[in-house]
Write a structure and sequence with these properties.
The complex is a heterodimer.
Chain A: H1 5-21, H2 28-50, H3 57-71, H4 74-82, H5 85-88, H6 91-114, E1 120-129, E2 133-141, E3 149-156, E4 163-169, E5 172-173, H7 174-188, H8 193-208
Chain B: H1 2-13, H2 23-38, H3 41-58, H4 64-91, H5 95-108, H6 110-119, H7 123-138, H8 147-150, H9 160-166, E1 175-177, E2 181-183, H10 185-197, H11 199-206, H12 211-227, H13 229-238, H14 242-258, H15 276-286
Antiparallel strand pairs in B: 1-2
Helix pairs in contact in B: 1-10, 2-3, 3-15, 4-12, 5-12, 6-7, 9-10
The chains are: A alpha+beta, B mainly alpha.
Amino acid sequence: MMINKRQFLVALIAVSCLLLAKPAPAQADDFTDGAVKFIETLADDAVQSLTAKDIEKKERIVRFRELLKKNFAVKAIGRWVLGRYWRKATTEEKEEYNKLFEDLIVATYVNRFEEFSGETLKVIKAINQNGKDAIVKSEILRPAGQPPVRVDWRVRAPNGTYKIVDVLVEGVSMSQTQRSEFSSVIKREGGEVAGLLAALRTKTEVLRN
Amino acid sequence: MIGGLFALLISVGLFFVSPKTAHAVDDGISAKFHVVDKVDLEQIAEIQNLDLSLEDDLDTDPLEGFNRLIFGFNEMIDVLFLRPAAEFYTKVLPPPIQRGVRNFLRNLRSPVILANDLLQGEMDRAGVTVTRFLINSTLGIGGLSDQAGKMGYYYHNEDFGQTFAVWGTGQGPYLVLPVLGPSNPRDLVGAVVEYLVDPVNIWANNTDREWIPVSRSVASGVERRAAVLELLDEAKKSSLDYYATMRSLYQQRRADEIRNGEDAENRPAPGFSYNLFRSGPNQASGGQH
């Protein structure tokens, strides 16, 4: 590994930024404990407000969207999913993308709560990553002797409010999967974000019905 | 038959030689330094996107045209035969029989799993594999019942593709194989090696019982398809590009299996804009490897 003077300088600046920018680090234990509580509360809330069989679909969607916005960093995720194409998008495209991205998540996941059959979430442990991320490792326990599903929640707490930035199911990142997919769609549409927006419009429309 | 497999093995092995493209890395690093010098938040935000896009560039699919063609063909096979078989399996066969089939097929793979535990130096896991095999082959009635699992010796999977990865072999380009589906040269070679060294297959082929490996392959194909029945139905319904989704799912699942489910280091994840000041420079210094 060759380090020239310039790179050394940059590394030095980087390290000092890290030290300076980090306010007296909140106790690691508090951070992860809070993350565990956050995920457990979310699981309880979701079961309570979304899984009843007798709610209308419209109402379920409203409640799901509310939980989603409160607990997930939807905009940050959406932006990361778009990757390098975020810069290429116009202001109007970004706005529409943010809306469609949220709609897609809602349309994709809301029905799963309709088919709820007594699954429970069991938190195994939480890991502190650099004091910035907490990975809350959990298992979704399913009825009828089906093997549990391993789910990791990647959580951050800027300003003390916990938000989920990624969900990993059996090691598969939902954000990463969507990112690969979106980038593939954009590439096929000649590198135009507009092509992705059109595909998103169609997909959210289809899923709604 | 064996000769043909060896020819395939060698031709596939050639894929390993192809070097990885790394052209994008230089641009990315110089761009990052440019921004870190200025310490401009908005630009760091942009660079973080650029930084992460590097991974997409490295994660290319040079055979995409060919792969999509085969993928389309496989989809046809799936809709016509495999999915209906998997649906029959999950919806018609009683769950105890399904568990029996799964346990039996898993137990049959014990020698291969053990070999790969050992080749990867995973002695604890090798011990679990041996214990499972002994308990399930006897108490578990020839592997039909997972008695070992009830005692806390849980099943884990290993294969030669994972072993090659642990040894440091690159995966090569993404590959969609006819009927067999998503793969890469490393996993394909692994599958061929597994077929050749599997004791049950060797015994069956040497005693003119070719129907055994064939029915075993069909059974495990259906069993594995059934295990992801709902998952793939959902993925197909909600994805904008099913091919790209499957590619990502396969690659991430394999990476997870290779790590034995441990956490990935430096896994990219969405960031908050107000965290960029901290994470931006951090990643710049991390990009030097």
